[in-house]
Amino acid sequence: MLRIYFTSADIARVRLAPTADPLWETILSIHMLRGQRGDLLFTEWRRTTAGALREAGLGPAMGLLSSLTPTMGYFPDFLNPIVPGHRLEDGLERMRSTPVAVLDRDLRRMGLPEHVQAGVRRIAEGSPAALRSLTDTILSYYQRAIEPHRRVVEAAVEHDRSVRIRTMADGGVARMLDGLRPMIEYSDGELRVPSHPDQEIHLGGRGLLLIPAYFGVNHPMTMFEESADPVLVYPVERRFDLLPDTASERRSGLAALIGQTRASLLYATAGDGRSTTDLARRVGISVASASEQTSVLREAGLLTSRRDGNRMVHQLTALGEALLYRS
Q1: Residue 233, helix vs strand vs coil
Q2: What is the pLDDT of residue 72?
Q3: 276-310 per-position pLDDT tens digit
Q4: Could you tell me which of 30, 116, 25 has the C-alpha nearest to residue 72?
Q5: What's the helix, strand, coil split of the chain in %, to 5?
């Protein structure tokens, strides 16, 4: 069982990650790619992703990465650096800058097969070329396995965040943590994950970062090293309307109906609402263009908009949700 001990200062420093963490999603999706208990909803994703990896010729490079990320047991903490904004590029750069002592410590804990020992040894020695090769493989994998489904991933994570934030607003951090049952139990300053291997973490005033994970399917996870940034990664609810195997078909049909940019804006709005600036960033368009297109969607009855301070926040209407999830 995982036990995490809170002080009053830690309760005040509990945070929710603002978005899906790309490196945790990468590791967990590699687990998902192998197949495991409870993953039947991802069968089509697994088939198409395996095909995309074969077409890209990533087999040899994936061998080492796969060995470093076993489905059960320990995998190196340095593969999951927590960076502000949870940007993939920043995480990969942090990974390449990992101190040699940390690389060596993490990799010594793993009993790896002999055919990858040479590659592992170069990483443990801090070889810039070996670390670059590893991060290039992670990036290539992410682009084929997760990037095509990024908006679905973000929508599912944002839905979970909105639930947690509402719970915290109504009953505080303790109720929000207790609301993660049955995965997590929380009482009297102690958080417990019964399905996790035995581990204890004393936060000691550092707080805890909660990271909702789309590709998580079993129990919540954390770092092995207690000195690492305290995090708890937990699976989000896998809603049928936010699955990667059906999302591409829905998006293509919706895009044919209202246009790709407007379809993308609708998907990016799913959840508790988004500001114009946030929508522009998520879809990859200018703020001016996002403002213009949301006006069109509002006039069509697919969005509502309200002023929140100096921001305009947009939400899906019932008609917008019906079009988004049933098209």
Answers
A1: strand
A2: 82
A3: 988 887 776 778 888 999 999 999 999 999 998 88
A4: 30
A5: 55, 15, 30
DSSP string, 90-129: HHHHHHHT--HHHHHHHHHT----GGGHHHHHHHHTT-HH
Q: What angle do CA 219, 222, 225 make, to 5 degrees?
A: 145
What are the C-alpha distances in Å from 178 to residues 8, 185, 187, 213, 229? Answer: 16, 6, 8, 18, 22
181-186: long-range contacts, CB 8 A cutoff, minimum separation 24: 183/219, 183/220, 183/234, 183/235, 184/220, 184/232, 184/234
Contacts of 269 (CB under 8 A, 6+ apart): 279, 303, 314, 315, 316, 320
pLDDT of residue 273: 76
Distance CA 116, CA 10 (A): 40
Query: At the top level of CATH, which class does the domain 243-326 belong to?
Result: mainly alpha
Residues of the chain scoring pLDDT < 50: 246, 249
Using CA atoms, how far apart are residues 178 and 184, in angstroms rounded to an integer? Answer: 7
Long-range contacts formed by 108-115: CB under 8 A, 24+ apart = 109/74, 109/76, 109/224, 110/68, 110/74, 110/75, 110/76, 112/67, 112/68, 113/67, 115/63
For residue 229, give the nearest of 31, 19, 28, 86 by alpha carbon: 86
Q: Is 8:157 a contact under the CB 8 Å cutoff?
A: no
**DSSP-derived 3-state class of residue 307:** strand
Place of tokens 């707080």: 207
Which CB contacts under 8 angstroms, 24+ apart, belong to 238-244?
Answer: 238/41, 238/156, 239/156, 239/159, 240/41, 241/325, 242/152, 242/155, 242/156, 242/159, 243/41, 243/42, 243/45, 243/152, 244/42, 244/44, 244/45, 244/148, 244/149, 244/152, 244/153
